[in-house]
Amino acid sequence: MCEFCHQHGEGKKWYLQAENYAQDLLSDLNRRTYIQHFFENPERLKKNIGLLDSLNKLPVFVQAVVKPLLINRQKRKHYGQVLPIEEIEKIFGFINSVVRLPCICRQASMGSEQRYCYGLSMEPGPDTEMGRIIRSIGADYLTGPETSGLETVSPEEALNQLREHEKKNMIHSVWTFVTPFIGGICNCDLNCMAMRATGKAYPVMFRAEFLAAVDIEACSGCQACMRACHFGAISYSIRDEKASIDPLKCYGCGICRVLCRKDAIALVERSSLAEAANQW
Ligand code: SF4
Ligand code: SF4
């Protein structure tokens, strides 16, 4: 299990621990302020990625000191984990309401409102505390047709939307807002700051508790799955005419399964493979 499971899971996976979504955590003023600041200024995110580029140009020994400090800070504030759809289904099994939000990462990187994020709440009903906090920020960047910037969707509708997002090659991730409070699920691709930061050796999300593996007997060698993987984990053997997955690169998102017409890819528990068990 990952570091957050040990710290915040009390024997469960941390994102399946209902207390981490509890409304009383939202009454904390620091957390509310953090959420407001987080959503009100997409430009700041862009600036942070610029700073990361500068960080990567520093001498290696300086990076070795600075990066762990920054990553630990990120873990205390806003950190995520990649989740396959089966784990999202479990979360939606106990969450009481969901609001669909514009993605702040894409607003920063693409300059347009795209609704790929979902605020989660244990509070029943459409007017959740998370929704109230975000509505209160008066974010000028919310320019879409639903100018309130928020839509309430049922957990079932949200799940169907997430399945559609998978077809567009997006991976699912769950996020804290001042850890351990969990406030949302995102659907990430390379337009996301989180993916870009992680790709620049500044991880802001853990890998999933799972790994993908190819059933060699079932694999036809079509190579379709290779198009799905954002992490370069899938390779193709010309000699065997089969795909294979490097467990040390795999994030366990599971989206490669969507493109496999032979049902040749399955997820297994990360802990089942010693070499990748502690690879987060
Ligand atoms: S191989 Fe790539 S796409 Fe498939 S689960 Fe692993 S990281 Fe995700
Ligand atoms: S998509 Fe499926 S059948 Fe095609 S190469 Fe990948 S694992 Fe094999």
Would you mind describing this structure in some detail?
With 280 residues, this protein is of the alpha+beta class. The chain has two domains: 3-206, no CATH class; 210-272, Alpha-Beta Plaits. The chain is built from twelve helices and eleven strands. The protein has a seven-stranded mixed beta sheet with strand order 4-2-3-6-5-1-7, sandwiched between helices. A two-stranded antiparallel ribbon has the order 8-11. A two-stranded antiparallel sheet has the order 9-10. Helix 6 (85-92) packs antiparallel against helix 9. It is globular. The mean pLDDT is 88. It binds iron/sulfur cluster (2 copies). Residues 214, 219-225, 243, 259-260, 262, 264-265 line the site of one iron/sulfur cluster (SF4).
Please state the structural category.
alpha+beta
Unreliable runs, pLDDT <50, ≥5 residues?
none
Radius of gyration: 19 Å
The small-molecule ligands in this entry are: iron/sulfur cluster
The residue fraction in helices comes out at: 25-40%
Distance between the termini: 9 Å
Order of helices and strands: HHHHHEHEHEHEHEEHEEHEEHE
Largest beta sheet: what is the strand line-up? 4-2-3-6-5-1-7
Biggest sheet layout: 7 strands, mixed
Proportion of beta-strand residues = 15-25%
Shape: globular
Helix segment tally: 12
Total number of β-strand segments?
11
Rounded average pLDDT: 88
**Structurally, how many domains make up the residues?**
2
